[in-house]
Design brief:
With 409 residues, the chain is mainly alpha-helical. Helices cover 77% and strands 1% of the residues. It has 15 helices and two strands. The chain has a two-stranded antiparallel ribbon with strand order 1-2. Helix 1 runs antiparallel to helix 6, helix 2 runs antiparallel to helix 14 and helix 5 packs antiparallel against helix 11. The chain starts with a helix and ends in a 6-residue tail after the last helix.
Length: 409
């Protein structure tokens, strides 16, 4: 299928802005409550888990509704508009508990617009000839967005509430504007049709035993994807705090930016490897990169080695996301992409978002504590998060030996 310029523009701005908003939530809300409200590891874990549960339920329900109505554009555009407004509301929050509640509200709109509608739209518009290219570019977005957010936040003093207010206004307004642009540039796939089934039948389709039997390999890949995500979510909520507080890298943005850029380029190119060689021959390298990256982060604190380790881990993370994402989209039954966004988000967000931070919290249970200037105390993340993440990757490598070759079984 030949894709026009409007598609690529829509994919780039919606994909990138969506990931920027998620980066602010997934990486900086943790920093926000850590710095502003002296949040504990348990607070951070609770917020990540509550958001994951909200994302999974929202994507399941709203993805099904988009299938039922045969529409993606409206959910994407209006979802981004309201998503942006909800981000602005964080400028007025003054407690951990309210942050967690509003994070769930924001996640509802974000998951409706991005996890459910945008991802279903990408599945609608792609095919076996271009899926790897689409997913390679789409999988660049998380790290590109991290780079943009890191760079944009460099000039802010994140110890002051005034800086956070400005950040929330800027991100929120831009997200809303992107939503308005979608009313003019996003086009639904011409082959997209309304589901003839009832809403409940449509909602439950991907959970039926007969659906599972007919798509066993898809569910095997989703299980492996969930294990992959658990590894990432063990360390990711604490990564910035680890760089800044544990390693003392006050200039971590300048150190990590080149790693992010290189990893993003590698990911864009690696999507073509999937198109040429398929899942079985493209999934191993990302896992090896992650494994080696974790090992170096465990063994070394030298800035140069941390840079190299982060590059390997980022590249493995994004290339793995690209390969898993492309394979899942290839296996989703035609005209069922909205319904399967629910089980995809369970594998990608819910399971990793609940189990990963919980493991992270457990391994940081006896982490070193420091006393802040105002007399409060904060925990200091240690390398246990990378050790636990490495163990999960080993489990995934073993699991994939059973999954490979089962596609036509």
């Amino acid at each position: 299928m030949k894709l026009d310029r409007k598609f690529w523009i829509g994919m780039l701005i919606f994909g990138l802005m969506g990931q920027i908003a998620w980066v602010v939530e997934n990486m900086y809300f943790n920093v926000f409550i850590y710095k502003m409200f002296n949040a504990s590891a348990a607070d951070i874990s609770l917020m990540v888990m509550a958001s994951a549960i909200t994302a999974a339920l929202t994507t399941l329900i709203m993805g099904t509704l988009s299938d039922k109505l045969g529409k993606r554009k409206a959910f994407m555009s209006w979802g981004y508009i309201i998503w942006g407004i909800s981000i602005v509301s964080f400028a007025y929050i003054r407690s951990v508990s309210l942050t967690i509640i509003m994070d769930c509200v924001m996640t509802f709109f974000g998951s409706t617009a991005n996890d459910a509608a945008y991802n279903a739209w990408l599945t609608d518009r792609g095919d076996s000839e271009n899926r790897g290219r689409i997913e390679g570019i789409n999988s660049m977005m998380p790290l590109i967005s991290i780079l943009i957010v890191f760079g944009g936040f460099m000039s802010f003093n994140l110890d002051k509430m005034s800086a956070w207010k400005t950040i929330y206004y800027v991100i929120g307004i831009i997200t809303t504007l992107i939503g308005f642009s979608g009313l003019f540039i996003i086009e639904d796939d011409p082959n997209l049709k309304k589901s003839e089934d009832s809403f409940m039948d449509t909602l439950l389709y991907s959970f039926r035993p007969d659906t599972f039997k007919a798509n066993k390999y898809l569910y095997m890949i989703l299980l492996a994807f969930a294990v992959f995500g658990i590894s990432i979510q063990i360390f990711m909520p604490y990564l910035i705090i680890y760089y800044e507080k544990t390693l003392g890298l006050s200039n971590y943005v300048l150190i990590m930016a080149p790693a992010i850029i290189i990893a993003a380029v590698i990911t864009a190119l690696y999507g073509r490897v999937y198109d040429a060689k398929g899942f079985n021959n493209s999934i191993d390298l990302p896992l090896i990169l992650l494994f080696v990256g974790y090992g170096l982060l465990i063994a070394f604190t030298n800035t140069a080695v941390v840079f190299a380790a982060s590059l390997l881990a980022y590249a493995g993370y994004l290339c793995g996301m690209s390969v898993f994402g492309a394979k899942i989209r290839d296996l989703i039954p035609e005209n069922r992409s909205g319904q399967f966004q629910g089980v995809r988000i369970i594998a990608q967000v819910f399971i990793p978002g609940v189990i990963g931070p919980y493991i992270g919290q457990l391994v940081l249970k006896n982490a070193e504590m420091i006393v802040n200037s105002d007399g409060t105390s904060s925990f200091i993340p240690n390398t246990n998060i990378f050790m636990a993440a490495m163990i999960v990757i080993i489990v995934l490598m073993v699991l994939l030996q059973f999954v490979k070759g089962k596609e036509n079984a």
